[in-house]
Amino acid sequence: MSDLKGKKILFIAAQLFGIQEAIIDSLEKRGAEVIYFDERPANSFLVKAAIRINRNLIGYYINRYHKDIIARTSQNKFDYIFFIKGESFSYNNLAALLSAHPEAKSIVYQWDSIANNNNALNLLGLFDSKFSFDRQDCKNLSLSFLPLFYYDEYASIKESGGRYDYDLFFVGTAHSDRYRIIKAVRKQFENLGKRCYTYFFFQGKLMFYKYYLQHKEARSIRKDEVNYESVSRNDLLELYKRSKIVIDVCHPKQTGLTLRCIEALGARRKLITTNRDIENYDFYNPNNIHIIESETPQVSSEFIESDYDPVPEEIYAKYSLSGWLDVIFGDNN
Questions:
Q1: What's residue 228's pLDDT?
Q2: What is d(CA 333, CA 327) in angstroms, rounded to the nearest whole number?
Q3: Residue 168 in contact with residue 245, Cβ under 8 Å?
Q4: What is the spatial distance between Cα 93 and Cα 250, in angstroms, rounded to a whole number?
Q5: Strands 144-145, 289-291: parallel, antiparallel or unpaired by DSSP?
Q6: What is the DSSP letter of 203?
Q7: C-alpha distances in angstroms, 94 versus 7, 78, 128, 140?
Q8: Could you name the CATH architecture of 8-146?
Q9: What is the mean pLDDT of residues 197-206?
Q10: 10 strand-pairing partners
Q11: Which of these CATH numbers, 3.30.70, 3.40.50, 2.60.98, 2.50.20, describes 152-318?
Q12: Is the pLDDT of residue 194 over 60?
């Protein structure tokens, strides 16, 4: 475990379903002092959409907010400046922030593919250490490969002796062809008399109707299946406890494994996924992980009925949040 006792960390990341709180809590338990700022000036639908489409649409608003962060931290001395993504900072503002703290080691982690966060390309050269969850981005941009993590409490779930409330569960947004694929797999389970739980989430009605108008595949989404409240961290953990198999459908523009894939490992749950790159990971076991094709998503009854096959304990430790932080703040990075 990386020794962070007495270390001061400036942590900048957008709000991500409570993930940033988990990171801060884990860092503080190691003895670090963490100052956190949301990278976005606000988390409304309009601000998020503007940043995604073109940050210059609200450039003055964003720049004023980031300059305020620089001013408020200028008198601090940091050992680390740690960014996740860097989707809204301009090159000049990031350069000014790092120049104000020459003693600090700068680190960035990309847990979205560069194809979904083009602004990152402008910033990568400013950081001392650069990580990504996407293997292809690492190869193309000379980044250090580091998969996502699961919360440490997932390790306490273990096996439930085959007593589950759900045979299949899904929680997530309904992007791309995800809705169609999950509905097709759910039907297969239900035809076998299995119990399923699916929760499709959108960050507000405006986001849903924008997606509905722009994407033909969205027209099949039933409005009574759409939810606008995210599932809390504790509720998600409870769903893992109650479920046998998790389904994940990755975004077509990414090759990196989603958080859901890593959570399934930590919870020791079987996984159905469209991400074929999972075969290249050290925890891959075809008894635990079933890869489906997007166009013809078929799941074998043998996979559905079989039990989870545990992997070596050191692999579980490697993909925990603690293991992830060990790499991010390791002495050699």
A1: 73
A2: 8
A3: yes
A4: 32
A5: unpaired
A6: S
A7: 21, 15, 13, 23
A8: 3-Layer(aba) Sandwich (3.40)
A9: 78
A10: 35, 81
A11: 3.40.50
A12: yes
Starting at the earlier edge strand, list the strands of the sheet with 33-37: 33-37, 8-12, 80-84, 105-110, 129-132, 144-145
Q: How confident is the model at residue 42 (pLDDT cuts 50, 70, 90)?
A: low
Q: Give the chain's largest Cα–Cα span.
A: 63
35 and 60 Cβ atoms separated by less than 8 Å = no
- Mapping DSSP onto H, E and C, the string for 62-77 reads HHHHHHHHHHHHCCCC
Question: Radius of gyration of the chain from Cα atoms?
Answer: 20
pLDDT tens profile 256-295? 899 999 999 999 999 999 999 999 999 999 999 999 998 8
Say whether pLDDT at 48 is over 70: no
pTM of the predicted protein model: 0.87
Asked if residues 248 and 176 have their Cβ atoms less than 8 Å apart, the reply is no
